[in-house]
Specification:
alpha+beta, 312 residues
Length: 312
């Protein structure tokens, strides 16, 4: 079983090094995209990952690309893996006649993360982690279990950094779960988030709707600011903080609800979702409710609690 633990890094001046690493990752990513496009124009086939990695290894030895060595080699390898997956999906969609665009260039400000596998990080006994020979402190809300597979350093839209620790857990020995003997079926809705077969309905929280007036004011303030100014940047930060708060409220509600259902019921049946049809009919309310994300959370929690889950 794979489990991801998320920790927030302390805000510190040394986080500027992580910013440089993210920007360096964006530079390498854009360089790889340019190589892909040039290779396709010449040979009418896309550049394979093995050739791209071998070419990057040669480039790092040149003087003008020597600064690429500041980034961990496995992080560079992951960039090529991302591009490979993106092009594979692009060509698959073309065969299915699905409209899509090939992977494109990304601005440094919008590039978010880099990934480390076996090397480049080391966790201390306390709330410290060494990332590429520099110590950082993080909010250790809980201990992580199992074997560490990957560590991702990710930056959000307001500049805060988080560590995503992906661990592989041993599920061969699992504690005995208490059974309630109850089963339930749920239908998704708008007024009621979940309509239950035993009439224990869950009302929709609608966090986005509750914050809509504040968001409108923040958007108006942002529209009045001059582009490129510090005041516009501050207004954008304020707006991003409001959106992040809504996402966190929604995620907190969904995790607490999933835990509550798994503790109360042994068998949980959910309605099969047609999200595109629901969005056409109800619009942004469906995006606010985020039913699809709740389904994935409930699936994960049902495995954790040893419950039976199925779509109907």
């Amino acid at each position: 079983m794979i489990k991801t633990y998320i920790y927030k890094l302390y805000n510190s001046d040394r986080n500027k090094t992580l910013v440089d690493m993210v920007h360096l990752s964006a530079e390498i990513y854009n360089h790889c995209i340019a190589l892909h496009r040039g290779y396709y124009r010449l040979y009418k086939v896309y550049l394979k990952k093995t050739k791209l990695q071998a070419h990057l290894t040669k480039l790092k030895k040149l003087e003008c690309y020597k600064h690429w060595n500041n980034l961990n080699s496995q992080a560079i390898q992951d960039i090529t893996d991302r591009i490979e997956r993106a092009y594979t999906l692009f060509f698959r969609n073309l065969k299915r006649k699905i409209k899509c665009s090939p992977p494109g260039f990304k601005k440094r400000k919008k590039y978010k993360s880099f990934l480390l596998k076996q090397t480049g990080y080391k966790f201390g006994n306390d709330n410290t982690v060494c990332i590429m020979k520099k110590q950082y402190k993080f909010w250790k809300s809980r201990d992580f279990d199992g074997k560490i597979k990957t560590v991702t350093i990710k930056r959000n839209s307001i500049g805060d950094f988080y560590i995503y620790v992906v661990c592989e857990l041993d599920t061969s020995i699992s504690p005995i779960k208490i059974r309630s003997g109850k089963s339930v079926g749920f239908d998704f809705g708008v007024k009621n988030y979940l309509t239950a077969s035993d009439k224990n309905n869950i009302e929709s929280p609608l966090f986005f709707k509750q914050s809509q007036n504040k968001l409108k004011k923040s958007h108006k303030v942002l529209s009045r600011k001059k582009k490129g100014s510090n005041n516009r940047w501050k207004a954008l930060q304020t707006l991003d903080k409001q959106y992040i708060k809504i996402v966190n409220q929604r995620k907190d509600f969904q995790f607490k609800l999933a835990n509550q259902l798994c503790k109360e019921y042994d068998i949980i049946c959910l309605e099969s979702l047609n999200l595109k049809g629901m969005q056409k009919r109800w619009g942004k309310k469906i995006s606010d409710l985020s039913h699809g994300n709740f389904v994935s959370i409930l699936k994960h929690q049902s495995i954790k609690y040893g419950r039976y889950y199925r779509d109907r």
